[in-house]
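Structure Section — protein described below
Tokens — whole-number codes for backbone shape
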Amino acid sequence: LQQQSMAISTRGMVKLKLQKVVIALKTIATENYGYCKQCDEGIPFKRLEIQPEAQLCLACQSKTDQR
């Protein structure tokens, strides 16, 4: 039962990551990729290298996480 619960949780996380990747690919097409959705500043390349689906810069992500 615990393994089944973990599998469901993992599946949900993978689906969410896939949705974020699809959104990132769409923003490439509109030339908005790499810019924060909240402050419109550029997202550092190192962050995008680690998390290519990132939609927020670290400052805005931190603010969002604190809420």
Summary: The mean pLDDT is 92.
